[in-house]
Structure formats: C-alpha cells, structure tokens
Amino acid sequence: MTEAMIRKKPGMASVKDMPLLQDGPPPGGFAPVRYARRISNTGPSAMAIFLTVSGAFAWGMYQVGLGNKIRRALKEEKYAARRAILPILQAEEDERDVPGWKVGENVYNSGRWMPPATGELRPDVW
C-alpha cells in the first residue's frame, strides 16, 4: 500500500516531482580516485643497504674481537695469579711433614728465631 492510498492524497507521478534537497556531485564530477598500488621510486638503493649492513656487521665483529682480547687478558691474569701463589701453597703443604708444625698456625709466633723479613735475598743469613 502506498502513501497515496492510505492518506488519500495524490502521490508523485514521477521522480522529477521530488523536491531538490539532495546533495550531488560538484559540477564536472569528482576527481578520479587513484586506487592502483603506489611503489615509491625514492629511498636507498640496494647497494647502499648492502654496504650499510656490511659495515654494521664488520663493526660488530670488531667489537666481538675487542671483547675476546679483554677476556683473554683477564683469563691470563687469573692464571698468572694462581701460578704466583702456587709455591706458597706448595710450601704450606710440604710443611705438614715437619715435626711440631701445625697447619694454619701463625708462623711468626712459633718461638723459633727467624731472620727478619726485609724482602731481600740474603744467602749469608741462611
């Protein structure tokens, strides 16, 4: 049922009878919409990207090499310290067989005379 039948009013005979309230396109139409894929022609070249990545990799490897040198030096220092203290530990171990020696006891309060520890090598005192 149409509005004309319900209200008993004459309806529109044509679309041309509609009041002109609708927005339309501007005169001459809208500008064309570009929907194609846009691939930019600018940006770094493949060679520039390759050289940048290669440079970053080379710098990183250089840093790894420096870290290896430092780590190797620290390891050598630790081994040198162990080698330096080894005779003292060996002497402590060998004193176990001396009668009256107690491991870990202070050697400076033993009651025996010892030459003064000046740090000099004095074979005439021994």
From TrEMBL:
Entry's transmembrane regions: 44-62
A Gene Ontology cellular-component term: mitochondrial inner membrane
Main location: mitochondrion
The protein's name: NADH dehydrogenase [ubiquinone] 1 alpha subcomplex subunit 13
Subcellular location: Mitochondrion inner membrane
Keyword Magnesium (UniProt): no
Keywords assigned: Electron transport, Membrane, Mitochondrion, Mitochondrion inner membrane, Respiratory chain, Transmembrane, Transmembrane helix, Transport
Signal peptide: none
Cited function: Complex I functions in the transfer of electrons from NADH to the respiratory chain. Accessory subunit of the mitochondrial membrane respiratory chain NADH dehydrogenase (Complex I), that is believed not to be involved in catalysis.
InterPro entries: GRIM-19 (IPR009346)
Pfam family, one: GRIM-19
Coiled coil region boundaries: none
Family (UniProt): Belongs to the complex I NDUFA13 subunit family.
PANTHER family associated with the record: NADH DEHYDROGENASE [UBIQUINONE] 1 ALPHA SUBCOMPLEX SUBUNIT 13, NADH DEHYDROGENASE UBIQUINONE 1 ALPHA SUBCOMPLEX SUBUNIT 13
Membrane topology: Single-pass membrane protein
